[in-house]
Predict the structure of MarR family transcriptional regulator.
Amino acid sequence: MKATDKAADKAAAADPKLSDFLCFAVYSANLAFGKAYKPILEQLGLTYTQYITIVALWEEDNQTVGSLGEKLFLESNTLTPILKKLEAMGYVERQRDPEDERQVRVSLTRSGRRLREKRLEGSLADATGLAPDEFARLQKAVATLRNNLIRSVRPGG
């Protein structure tokens, strides 16, 4: 490498462009996902957060609010209003756990289970333009990135 190349590399590192930031790439991809999901979710009358809450319940019904929050990376003070809204819409039921009154359990109603028939995910996977193996690799890489970042900010992480 020539001295001028090294100087250019140092200058680029000292003056990074927005497009060089991984965090911006992830952030802007998240915004693009929101735009792609919006027309589909509007048909259902759901927000993205409400939708992923229902998806988590399709995966495992009758969960505690705490376990659901862990899966969704949401605190209970964020999740509770979402659950109240979904309950008012007739998609979920919340009940105190008879074995532990401190716990609230969340279950899908028949209407909540029926939403699964809409099959939203396929058309959005197609919208990414990724082949199935690329899609799976990217999803795994992003999940690893998320987990590493969470671990790095935990006390003792």
Notes: The domain at 29-117 is CATH 1.10.10.10 (Arc Repressor Mutant, subunit A). The chain has a mean pLDDT of 89. The radius of gyration is 21 Å.
